Amino acid sequence: MLGKLFKYDFKWINNKVMFIYYSVFLIITILVKVIESFEQTILMVVVDKILSGMFISCFISIIITCFMRIWARFIDNFYKDSSYLTHTLPVTKDELFNSKVLASIASLIIAIIIVLLGAFYVFLGDNGFDTLKIMYQSLIDAYNSIFAFIFVIGLILLVLLEVLFFMFSGIFGIIIGHRFNNYKMFKSIAIGIGSYLLLSIIMFVILSLIGNYADINNIVDGFPPLNTVKVFGCVGIIAYLVFDIAYYFMAKNIFNKGVNVD
User: Fold this and answer.
1) Is the predicted pLDDT of residue 126 greater than 90, yes or no?
2) Rounded to an integer, what distance in angstroms lies between the CA atom of residue 111 and that of residue 22?
3) Would you tell me how many other CB atoms lie within 10 Å of the CB of residue 236?
4) The last residue of a domain, from among 69, 102, 127
5) How many CA within 13 A on the CB side of residue 53?
6) Torsions phi, psi of 97, nearest 5?
7) Is residue 88 part of a domain?
8) Cα dist. 242→165, 248, 257 in Å?
9) Is 137 among the domain residues?
10) Residues 174 and 239 in one domain
11) Three-state DSSP class for residue 155
12) Is 104's pLDDT higher than 90?
């Protein structure tokens, strides 16, 4: 049953709106590269700047829209009119909650991959793969091949955990806020933003304290010392992982206690 729920949630989040955004983003990406291939006259430069601005706007809009649809799915399916059907389905609350979390994570991963591929193509050019290879080789030269690989995987994991941290902040705010009788949306937003800022401040303090003892200013050939990178990377990944897991279980436990349907 979880698979069927996931399919419906995923299709709802990634509906025609997201498809249109992805299509427009692809078209703009291609147009930017086409314009940049022409002789850069004043007209071409102006058009290039306009398209570049549209590219950045679409890049940001895709991520924001994906987040908004994820949160809207929680609200619509759990607290609005469609919730009367949702809560009568022969499934557990855990399955309902987990389905939306999994669909949200999958949707965010797809959105991030699409915008990053577009960004690599636009900003790194036709030789983008070669540019990435040069950057990766710089990591190997600065450290070693094993750590370079670990660094890339760790960076990807860190970005994903940060994105999920933002997503779970909104979900946590929605679930807490909708337990109130009045001003549910306002309280959901306030709690979501407040919890996000609070944990972000805690994260900043932790990294600042570590920075006071780490040799962060000893930069060699543009790279900090290996031990410093290890410490900051491990602390960042562990902290965001703990935040995400805590958000997940707190939100699910509160959700399992029941909801107040509008």
Assistant:
1) no
2) 8
3) 20
4) 127
5) 5
6) -70, -50
7) yes
8) 10, 10, 23
9) no
10) yes
11) helix
12) yes
pLDDT per residue as tens digits for the range 17-51: 898 999 999 998 888 888 877 777 787 778 878 88
Q: Can you tell me the mean pLDDT for 241-259?
A: 90
For residue 46, being part of any structural domain is answered with: yes
* Ranges of H-type helices in the chain: 2-13, 16-37, 42-79, 83-86, 93-124, 128-142, 145-177, 184-213, 226-256
Same-domain pairing of 110 and 168? no
Q: Is the pLDDT of residue 222 over 70?
A: no
Q: What is the distance between the alpha carbons of residues 197 and 204, in angstroms, rounded to a whole number?
A: 10
**Is 138 domain-assigned?**
no
Dihedral (C-alpha) 247, 252, 254, 256: value to the nearest 10 degrees? 180
Domain that residue 247 falls in: 143-262
pLDDT score recorded for residue 171: 95
Q: For residues 147 and 119, state if they share a domain.
A: no
Question: 3-class DSSP state for residue 124?
Answer: helix
With beta carbons less than 8 A apart as the criterion, state whether 262 and 77 touch. no
d(C-alpha 226, C-alpha 230), whole Å: 6
Please give the tally of structural domains in the chain.
2
- Say if CB 206 and CB 236 are below 8 A apart: no
- Tell me if 76 sits within 8 A of 70, measured CB to CB: no
Among 100, 127, 154, the domain boundary falls at 127
Provide DSSP, 167-231.
Answer: HHHHHHHHHHHTTSSS-HHHHHHHHHHHHHHHHHHHHHHHHHHHHHHS-TT--BTTB--HHHHHH
Residues 117 and 162 in one domain: no
